[in-house]
Design brief:
The protein has about 325 residues and is α/β, with parallel strands linked by helices. The protein has 10 helices and 12 strands. The two termini are about 35 Å apart. Belongs to the class-I aminoacyl-tRNA synthetase family. GluQ subfamily.
């Protein structure tokens, strides 16, 4: 989506120019909110963590508006998010990027995956998937989503194409060969060693949805690679996405960033604070107080400061002791 309020900020510079990518070893971080509404306290914690990590490493910090799911993004929400970040002095080192304007790049990536045999069209509805799973004697659900069993890997079988999926197996085998399962192992700077059987726990995942919208997994990988992102700092709820993104990085020949997943901010009901469960918009009547609360959530010590710049400076100095 990307409302008109953001047009002037982006202009012809639709992100970090490929010729301006960081040199080897230079830190580039990013905050990538979905503008489905104003930021809440959990959003500010994620933004502050990524900003602090970039500043503590002497690196660059970017903002990417992840608005590929246009129907869920109200007009003007992107401008509200950018305004909230400006109020707490979390300012990017380059103009923001809107994913809704990057469709050609995502299509080019999908075309490469299709040409290599890794991506394929899928004609299955949710009902089709559920019936296929039941026929195999299981109810494979994961976070409320059905684990796709690969019905269309070897052809649509007369069904019209609805979505595009990526094979979750280690190789590309012929029908009946039984492709070997694929386990992805990675190191998180806070969570330590993580591992996931992509084939059994996730299945062949969507790259382009049945409604024609680009899936988050593909868009984020393409944009992280294009922007030269070296470090991804985000909430722990997104750690489960990391193996899928690592696999796409491998297949598209993109470098793997370092990952740091921060603790979740929970609501009074013990659930993750999010717009979906009614999180209140961020109260910025006192921006410094809002930053202090976010810093406390991240485990920063109490910092004596009277102004936003002073607090941020001291928070950058305190950050390395918390997250290495």
């Amino acid at each position: 989506m990307g409302g008109s309020d953001g047009d002037g900020a982006e202009g012809a510079h639709a992100g970090v120019d490929p010729g301006d990518r960081p040199s080897a070893g230079r830190y580039v971080g990013r905050f990538a909110p979905s503008p489905t509404g104003p930021l809440h306290e959990g959003s500010l914690v994620a933004a502050l963590a990524s900003w602090l990590d970039a500043r503590a490493h002497g690196g660059r910090w970017l903002i990417r508006i992840e608005d590929v799911d246009g129907p869920r993004c109200p007009v003007g929400a992107d401008a509200t998010v950018l305004s909230q970040l400006a109020q707490v002095r979390l300012l990017p080192d380059a103009p923001p990027v809107w994913q809704s304007r990057r469709g050609e790049a995502y299509q080019a990536a999908l075309d490469r995956l299709v040409a290599a045999g890794w991506a394929y069209p899928c004609g299955c509805s949710r009902k089709d998937i559920a019936e296929a799973i039941a026929a195999r004697g299981g109810q494979r659900e994961r976070h409320g989503e059905l684990v796709y069993p690969g019905n269309c890997r070897d052809g649509l079988q007369g069904k019209p194409a609805r979505a595009w999926r990526l094979r979750s197996t280690a190789g590309i085998g012929r029908a009946g060969d039984g492709d070997a399962p694929l386990r992805i192992t990675w190191q998180d700077r806070r969570l330590g060693t993580q591992s996931q059987d992509l084939t059994d726990e996730v299945g062949d995942f969507v790259l382009k949805r049945a409604d024609g919208l680009w899936a988050y997994q593909l868009a984020v990988v393409v944009d992280d690679g294009w922007q030269g992102v070296t470090d991804v700092v985000r909430g722990e709820d997104l750690a489960d996405n990391t193996p899928r993104q690592i696999r796409l990085q491998e297949l598209l020949g993109l470098p793997r960033p370092r990952y740091l997943h921060t603790p979740l901010v929970l609501g009074d009901n013990g659930e993750k604070l999010s717009k979906q469960n009614g999180a209140r918009p961020l109260d910025l009547g006192d921006p410094l107080a809002a930053l202090r609360r976010a810093g406390d959530r991240l485990g920063l010590p109490a910092l004596a400061a009277r102004t936003l710049p002073e607090w941020l400076e001291r928070a950058v100095a305190a950050w390395p002791a918390r997250r290495r």
